[in-house]
Amino acid sequence: MKIEKFEDILSWQRSRKLVISVYEIFKDHKDFGFKNQIEKAAVSVMNNIAEGFERKSNNEFKYFLFVAKGSAAEVRSMLYLAKDLNKIKKENFENLYKLTIEISKLLSGLIKTL
Predict the structure, then answer these.
(1) Domain encompassing residue 95
(2) Residue 1 domain-assigned?
(3) Fewer C-beta neighbours within 10 Å, C or N terminus of the chain?
């Protein structure tokens, strides 16, 4: 399948799910610094995939995919902190953790194909 727009990219689709889930899970969270940081990191994954694709250069796209991969790791790191501080249910942690791993693997595969 030829990717014609960033919305066709599976890692972008999964990162969109990540953003929605993070916003829903932390919507009533009182630690606004923490909430803001994890939300920004999740949005960064999605937006860097989109921005990189629109640059229309494989080298620039790869750069932005690496940034997105780093942001996925940041979300995962924040999830550990949320779990350690009892700010997230175990089930939510596990689901979001698996999603960030899946996104990272998809990004790695996309980087290799470029």
Answers:
(1) 6-24+32-113
(2) no
(3) N
Asked if residues 103 and 65 have their Cβ atoms less than 8 Å apart, the reply is no
pTM (whole model) above 0.90: yes
Work out how many domains the chain is built from and give that number.
1
The enclosing domain of 88 has a CATH number of 1.20.1440.60
pLDDT averaged over the chain?
97
The full DSSP string for the chain is ----SGGG-HHHHHHHHHHHHHHHHTTT-S-HHHHHHHHHHHHHHHHHHHHHHHT--HHHHHHHHHHHHHHHHHHHHHHHHHHHTT-S-HHHHHHHHHHHHHHHHHHHHHHHH-
